[in-house]
Amino acid sequence: MGCAASSYSTSDQNDHAVYYVTVNSKTLGVKIAESLLTDKLAACVNIIPGVESMYWWEGKVETDQELLLMIKSSRALLNQITKRVKEQHEYDTPEVIAVPIVGGSTQYLNWIKENTRRPR
């Protein structure tokens, strides 16, 4: 017994992406998430607590407790999402990383498409 062919799909020419953004507080994470959702720049934002980040900054290794925003959206909205995060973020160099969604549930991928706006 196999899966129905229409249950799973490769993302239409990599139209969808997951964006990763780290923040230093839940308040900031909620602010960014609400802004992206309100303007339909994202269909969903997961706020994941308990991320310990180690990174180079100004010549030395730093360690911070952060939260991770996992943003599901359109790949074509990269510039608008990056701009919005930079406008609202407290960091000098906020992380905005886009990873293409290469496949998944057709129903879920369609839901992302239906709940994000077309790029300007």
Automatic annotation (TrEMBL):
Query: Membrane-crossing residues?
Result: none
- Any one Pfam family match given in the protein's UniProt record, by short name: CutA1
In the record, biological process GO terms are: response to metal ion
**Domain of life, per lineage:** Eukaryota
PANTHER family, per the entry? DIVALENT CATION TOLERANCE CUTA-RELATED, FI09726P
**Family stated for the protein in its record:** Belongs to the CutA family.
Task: State what protein this is by name.
Answer: Divalent ion tolerance protein CutA
Which organism's genome codes for this protein? Chloropicon primus
Lineage of the species this protein comes from: Eukaryota, Viridiplantae, Chlorophyta, Chloropicophyceae, Chloropicales
